[in-house]
């Protein structure tokens, strides 16, 4: 009986080591997949980014702020931390993880809009974290959304359950270079899509207008909270730039002004009171008139992102030049 138990334990141990080895290789392959979300996170966690300009926000940041165009105009290394479908809380958490592992940026660009102040209740695109589940900073973040992440790291391959294609991608990446499903450039994800009107987003806007007092109070409180969050981390030379990116013209209808105007007024007041905080409003830029620059009313496509980010880069360079003269 004793021999049988030892034999059984040895089988379990061998199986554990084999499955752990498979998981290790898959994790390694994903982390090394060029231009992927996994390589992007790995660079952040390994402290390999250290950008001078950092962009924060949700999908609007990720898909609309072309790091290449901003770099071209400013000649400064730029990283996009945009979190697809990530609410205010996730944006904050990703920025904090970035700061723990990388040098503090000189310029923080925070995308701002009417959808920016909602909190994420669920973790979007959770597979982006699979190779990093055992990283304490990542685990602390994702465990807030799903308790399973507090234990799946102890069981090899469990995190890839029902995600075999991701496991396979990681394994194959060890022997060949596959293009990722979503190709990133310093965190920026270009969308080569044609325009399609997103009626569901207009329904959300109309619903918010009906509850404008409640929504405006939340937005303004969250903006003040955001300012405090950044100010506790900024030094005297850090510049915080709030940017309202272009939106398709149908979103600029005056019926939404009761939501937009109080926020813009607050941003302008904050800029007046703080010499290192700026607000740039591109919402009504000429880009807004042309659907060729958007893939929906809220997001720029690759062509729109390039055009907008070039203009933003020029504006940032002007701020930096003016600020240097003042010093």
Automatic annotation (TrEMBL):
InterPro entries: SGNH_hydro_sf. GO terms for molecular function: hydrolase activity, acting on ester bonds. SUPFAM superfamilies: SGNH hydrolase. The chain crosses the membrane at residues 6-25. Keywords: Membrane, Transmembrane, Transmembrane helix. This is SGNH/GDSL hydrolase family protein. It comes from Flavobacterium hydrocarbonoxydans.
């Amino acid at each position: 009986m004793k021999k049988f138990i030892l034999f059984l334990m040895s089988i379990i141990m061998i199986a554990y080591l084999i499955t752990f080895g498979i998981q290790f290789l898959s994790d390694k392959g994903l982390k090394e997949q060029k231009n992927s979300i996994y390589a992007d996170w790995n660079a952040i966690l390994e402290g390999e980014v250290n950008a001078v300009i950092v962009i924060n926000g949700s999908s609007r940041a990720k898909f609309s702020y072309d790091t290449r165009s901003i770099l071209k105009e400013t000649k400064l290394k730029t990283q996009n931390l945009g979190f697809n479908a990530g609410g205010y809380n996730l944006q904050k958490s990703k920025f904090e993880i970035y700061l723990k592992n990388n040098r503090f940026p000189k310029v923080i660009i925070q995308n701002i809009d009417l959808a920016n102040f909602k909190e994420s209740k669920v973790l979007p695109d959770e597979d982006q974290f699979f190779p990093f589940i055992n990283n304490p900073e990542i685990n602390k973040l994702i465990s807030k959304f799903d308790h399973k992440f507090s234990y799946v790291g102890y069981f090899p391959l469990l995190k890839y359950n029902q995600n075999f294609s991701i496991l396979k991608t990681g394994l194959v990446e060890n022997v060949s270079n596959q293009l990722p499903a979503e190709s990133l450039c310093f965190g920026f994800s270009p969308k080569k899509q044609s325009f399609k009107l997103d009626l569901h987003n207009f329904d959300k806007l109309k619903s918010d207008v009906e509850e404008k007092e409640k929504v405006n109070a939340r937005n303004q409180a969250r903006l003040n909270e955001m300012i405090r969050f950044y100010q506790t981390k900024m030094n005297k030379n850090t510049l915080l730039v709030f940017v309202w990116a272009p939106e398709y013209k149908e979103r600029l209808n005056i019926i939404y002004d009761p939501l937009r105007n109080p926020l813009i007024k607050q941003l302008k007041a904050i800029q007046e009171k703080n010499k290192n905080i700026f607000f740039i409003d591109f919402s009504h830029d000429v880009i807004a008139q042309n659907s060729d620059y958007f893939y929906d009313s809220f997001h720029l496509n690759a062509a729109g992102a390039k055009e907008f980010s070039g203009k933003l880069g020029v504006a940032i360079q002007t701020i930096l030049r003016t600020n240097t003269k003042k010093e």
